[in-house]
Amino acid sequence: MRSAGEPRWLRPPAAVEPADGTDGPAGHGSPADPLTRPPHERDDRVTDWSAWSREAVALMQRRNQTWQARFELTNEPFRWDLPSATMHFRRNNDRIVASLCLVGTTSESEGTFMWAWANDSIPAAAIKGLDVVRQFGEANDLPLLTERQFRASRPEALEVLAIAGRILDAEGVFVAPDGDVTCFFALKSFHVEPSDPAG
Fold first, then answer.
1. 79, exposed or middle or buried, with CB in 10 Å at 0-12, 13-18, 19+?
2. For the chain, which residues make up each domain, given as ranges?
3. Do 166 and 158 form a contact (C-beta atoms < 8 A)?
4. What are phi and psi of 98, to 5 degrees?
5. Is 140 or 15 the better-scoring residue by pLDDT?
């Protein structure tokens, strides 16, 4: 239980923070987004991936605002559990629980982003569904979604998180620093549970 170089095909949007441990939505977009369908179900349009990325960031921002408003979350204590693939936000009389997918991590000292599917120490439950993002990258010839690790700082990692969130149709995204490493999560299936006496 844990608590609290420019990409080659994406331009980081200026001053964008899709979410972090204190900022952030819910709301659910349409899973029928034509740009997240398998290639054989799409037409042969030429995609502006920079615009697609900016749309992903805006979408995740809206969804973060929605879930935080819905559950009245601001700076509540949180913790995550990778084996059970859950994120917990503690309120006064109950807690909000969401299913999580660890998208990836950054190392400040190394200046890199690593996809969670490339990290053998991550439990399978915590990356369930993440293969869809890699498959999307392979189908659309987007190396940033298929390379195990690449040079990146927080802005690039936030953008990649928003892209993964859009592909996964996440209800929101969440960023949790933990020393040198920062974890980037996609969240969905928010619900209320009774308070856990153990915290």
1. middle
2. 16-39+48-194
3. no
4. -130, 150
5. 140
